[in-house]
């Protein structure tokens, strides 16, 4: 029910090996970005719902990994210098 | 001085005008130093002087009737023919110097000119030794003229130079006066004496036709006054008319003129015309006590010197005019400056009399302007000037008028000639005439004449015969009833002054007209404005009356509401009036409202942020809105009890609009009004409807919150404000950030966790409801039946993109934000409708910022 109409956060990680290398890299980046977003959002949602120290610890971990993922994404983009694409 | 020629009158009556009628150019003789022949168009000799044999070596009898070519050698003839080709001017004279005319090689100076249908050829044996260029003698004198300072210096230097060039014992520079008399302004004598300097010669000394001749033939030499000359034969043409010798260099002289010269003790004379601006300005009069001949070439060089002198005269006068012009310009500037200081024209002019005197010396000054008489110095009385002005009105045109002897022209002036003998009148307007008149006192002057000017001729020993006077002893005349004559530079200065004064008059008149016109326009504008405002106020009152009545439940409530609103308008009007109906302060208006309705509670109102100057048109609208807000806060809101506070936060958005957020806190619990009254209508509709601004009010339980936006057109500027005056103690700030969302939001995101997170953030920002959608089709369906107020769209939705939804929102004018994973901004901007992009993973702050910008951009786009 939770994911009715919505995709699983890791769904886009599945990469088609028959695609050209650039598109495959983009796909991977997209998946990474999505994971970072999900981590960040999850952290905020958890923080809203619970004051449990364990949950807060998980939240902090998620936020930290989202931030690291975001930085990694930026580094990768710069490294690959891929042309802009919206897909 | 060498007066011109006259001759015995043919009638017994001694009449000076006879001199004026004497045909001095047709005396039929030549002087002995040259011979003359007159030839026909086919160059046959028709007339010859008797001395032709002595001069040219061909006798008169032998020459008459023969071709010119028979008389002179062919080289000489060819030179004459060549010279003739250059003769185009009717008064032109061809000059040849040192030309051999006979086989013996003897050189002649030759003059050739046309006279009627004849050619006059004159021969003068070359006297000077060849080998020295005459111009070399003349040029240094010409160059020296340029260094002369004043006119007197120039004339003195020229006289001295001419004496050196000509070898004559005496050279005088004789200047014609306005009355045609002549005055010796420079004299150079070999004996170093001053014999005639400063003396006057009567006009009759140079008859009219002599003056005319001086203008055509610029140099006249009389080598020996005792020379009887040589007659021309035959003396006349077939019709008996004598040959016109006007331009002949060797032309003989009237016996009367010779007698005149003898009476002066002169044996040789040379007169050289000084021309200026096409008129005869004066003469160089050269005298010698013994016969003296100088050859034609040197005479031509002297003539050229006279031309240069004329040129220098003009240059000198031009320089003088320039000085005068500058002085007059200074006067004009001074006059304008005084008038700019508020001094009336008459007072300004009278106070400048002394300065004016440096340019035009005078003893008194009268200004007659619009029938008002003002005078200073030695001037006529108002009554006396009344007659003078009548005389001027009927006698002079629009030009400057001057006389140094007013009594001669205006008899009443003789009675006060000691005070005012001459005037220089400057007309300074059209009829009825206004005048600036400068006056001069009488000067009892003694004029020295070269002999009695009243007796220029006497009866001679041979009965009734016109005879020139014998005495040239100085004859002194005491002149009364005259002032010092107004000089040409002074008259020129007066003409410049007239122009300057006319300009001043015109400026004064123009300024007066402009002021009148401006006043009329302003009056008209005020009437129109007043009319407009009265109509507006009446309409507004009518509306207020109707609306207040319909919403009031009791008469007291109706009266109170109406009175409050009228008072609010009145205060706004007062505010505007105090600002000269210029843009007025927003904060002043707000403070004014609270001061009127929240007396004692004003300290609980805090106004934070920049102030804005609101245009007059927007001011009344704003006044009504603020009035409603203020009265509501006092009646129902934060200021109703003792604890609540009102915070008004102002800011300027990116498009230049002026925002003010009204937040009430600490008052009684708030509920939305059960019925929509006129006050609510004013609050919600007045600014959007009348000013094309925005108004948004929400009745939150904790206190009313409202946001208003005045568009840039409604304000003329904003400025940072000083600390709030009405609330010395800081009030509690609103419990939210600057940016608030209102209404329903849409989140299109295929990842649920991200969608939920985004929805939570939107709710935190004020969204009352957030719809989450994960696909384009579902989102479009929802948008088709609902109206979102804002949206957050993920770009990539798995195998589809949110572009169709973005376009649908753009069409509906809904602000939205695109969320995207990585560097796609440039391409998105190309594909999507104008929007704001937030980078994923977003934070609450970055999403808020993006939504704020999207909302502002859309607002700017609407403006």
TrEMBL record, chain A:
Region annotated Disordered, chain positions: 1-21
Protein name: Uncharacterized protein
Organism for this UniProt entry: Salipiger aestuarii
UniProtKB/TrEMBL annotation, chain B:
UniProt enzyme class: transferase
Domain of life: Bacteria
Pfam name, any one: HWE_HK
Domain Phytochrome chromophore attachment site: 150-307
Domain called Response regulatory: residue spans: 744-855
4-aspartylphosphate modifications at: 794
The enzyme's E.C. designation: 2.7.13.3
GO terms classed as biological process: detection of visible light; phosphorelay signal transduction system; regulation of DNA-templated transcription
Reactions this protein catalyses: ATP + protein L-histidine = ADP + protein N-phospho-L-histidine
Record's keyword terms, sorted: ATP-binding, Chromophore, Kinase, Nucleotide-binding, Phosphoprotein, Photoreceptor protein, Receptor, Sensory transduction, Transferase
GO molecular function, one term: ATP binding
Protein name: histidine kinase
Organism: Salipiger aestuarii
